[in-house]
Amino acid sequence: MSATPLEATRRPALGAVLLLAATSFCWGLNWPVMKLALAGIPVLPFRALCLLAAGPAMLAIAWLRGDRLRLPPRELRQVVVAALFNITLWHLFTGYGVSLMPAGRASIIAYTMPAWATLLGVLFLGETLTPSRAAALVLGLAGIGALLLPDLGAILAAPLGAASMILAALCWAVGTVVMKRFRWTGSVATLTGWQICIGGLPILAAALVTGPFPGLAHADPGTLAALAYVVVFGMILGQWGWFEVLTRLPVTRASIGTLAIPVIGAVSSVLLLGERLGTAELVALVLVVAALALALRPAPRR
Fold it and tell me: pLDDT tens digits for 2-23?
């Protein structure tokens, strides 16, 4: 059966921290590797293949953990809405965004999500916009500005990459608010597995209609290796590691640990893809990490 909160507090913290570090590394490296895969596989078939493998794998993991796989009928509509934003739109926008702009910049923009989620939480969940969260929102927007302003002319000429990543971050934020708004009875692993399966269906249908599927005609061994990494490490093991971390560490501490992901994404993009890491990228990285640290900082005790 899944671990209870009391059981989770008794587990060794060191193992959880090491697992969080490994998960962050897998997800950070996933950004440049995904760009390598997209060089030989069209976006729709690539995303369809990833989701087709990850969804059933996540449900299998949930079943092995002893979680109940059946969704209550009253929660089905909410799961479909969450899947639309967390899976369908997120994977479409990030897939096109990474294919149209440097992977390091794409990862930085994607992890502005907590700033957008803070604003949406105030509007739709009645949460209080504390000074630290307001500062986080300003810093996140400033990070986007620092990243995009130096190349504003090129972006205006071909703005789809940056726009796709901003929309991806917004969709992730909307999906997060949807998940927070409802009281779920299923485990996190089960909910995520069903979201991947449900949200992946429109992408799979689009890939089959537009064809050819699976789109591997021009995929060389390097492209196939990149695809395998994204499926195994970026989605299956990464998601499993994240859920395991959540059973052992407080959510706030685990979330702050993900701040390493855009840093790893930017640095690994320099090493694997030869992307430039100039002053604008460093400034944006610092601002976004500061924004995330403020947005995810636990409330002070009274």
Answer: 444 434 444 457 788 888 889 9
CA distance 195 to 169: 17
Q: How far is CA 83 from CA 3, 7, 134, 181, 191, in A?
A: 25, 30, 28, 14, 9
| Count of positions (residues) in the chain | 302
How crowded is the C-beta side of 11, counted as CA atoms within 13 Å?
18
pLDDT tens-place string over residues 124-174: 878 777 787 788 778 888 887 887 777 677 667 668 888 999 999 999 889
Alpha carbon dihedral 217, 163, 108, 59, in 10-degree steps, equals -60
Q: Cα separations (Å) of 174 from 75, 99, 144, 178, 294?
A: 17, 23, 19, 6, 19
Cα distance between the two ends of the chain: 35
Is there a contact between 58 and 236 (Cβ–Cβ < 8 Å)?
yes
Q: Which two tokens stand for residue 207?
A: 């890939």
Q: Domain ranges in the chain? A: 43-295
Say if CB 113 and CB 250 are below 8 A apart: no
| DSSP states of 195-221 | HHHHHHHHHHHHHHHH--SS--TT--H
Cis peptide before 262 (omega within 30 of 0): no
